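Justification of resources, computational component.

The compute hours requested in this renewal are based largely on the per-chain cost of generating structure records like the one below. Each record pairs the submitted sequence with a full C-alpha cell output. That output is archived, and it is also reused by downstream analysis tasks.
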Amino acid sequence: MNLEVNTDSDVLLVRIKGEMDLASAEQIRSEVDRKFLAENCRHLLLDLTRVTFIDSSGIGVILGRYRRLSGGGGKMAILKPQPQVRRVLDIAGVSGLATYCRSEKEGIGFLLRRGEAQ
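The structure output for this chain reads:
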C-alpha cells in the first residue's frame, strides 16, 4: 500500500495505491488524521483510482473520517474507484455519504462549493 497526502485550499487530498485492508487501515487512518490536524482542512477527497481491494477495515477508515468531517461541517468526495471497489462502497452505504467524482478538479470544486453554501 502506498499513501500520498496533500492539501489544496481547504481540501485534504489522499491518494491511495494498493489494498485498503486490515494490514493498511491503521496506517491510512493515522496519517490522514495527523494531516487533518496539521493542515486544519475541512474537506476530504479520497483518490481510490489505484485501490485494487477494500475490506471492512478500509470501509471503517472511510466511515470514521466521514464522521469526523461531518461533525465539523466538512464534506467528502471519492475519486474514480475501480468497479470492484465501488461495488463494496455501494453495498456499505458509502455512496450515500460521499459523492463520486471523475477528476481531482471536479472533486475539489464540488467540495469547496458545498462548503461555501453552508
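The radius of gyration is 13 Å. Confidence is low (pLDDT under 50) at residues 114-118.
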